Amino acid sequence: MTMAQEEAIELFGEKQIRVVWDDVEEKYYFSVVDIVHVLTESVDSTAYWRKLKQRLKEEGNETVTNCHALKMTAADGKQRLTDVADTEHVLRIIQSIPSKKAEPFKQWLAQVGAEQTATDLSKERNPEGLAATAHVAKDGAEVARNARADIEQRLGHSVISDKKAIDYITPKEELPFEK
To answer: From CA 8, how far away is CA 30, in angstroms rounded?
Structure first.
């Protein structure tokens, strides 16, 4: 599998899940062994996955066929081949593992996907990043300033009150940030 990939570690509770974002496919690949560890709390999650994978193959389950091996950073800091699966196949693997954590894990999986979608939308709408946003904000402020000056000139008086917005809030004793 060739991909422009970006490896990261996501946290499910206090457990680490190694994740790779594939820019070409535009989807996440999750370390299956990490998921097995989170769901089973097995001392040897690699052996658990190996046995589960064997059982699924014997049953004719194609999920295992769709798991790819990618090099990911292991706990010892070395790059090692690790079985990974995309979100769809992770959900199928979860169904094969009896665990009370399955539902919370599915919710976490959806959240990770939603965060990536939000990031993608942000990049699409603002590909230049923060500098472009700052430029747009500066331009918007200038437009607002000019519009206000134009309105004040036509009305013949200021449209901005001398009172600050905080002065309209009563009573002041309830404001925790004022001393």
So the answer is: 10
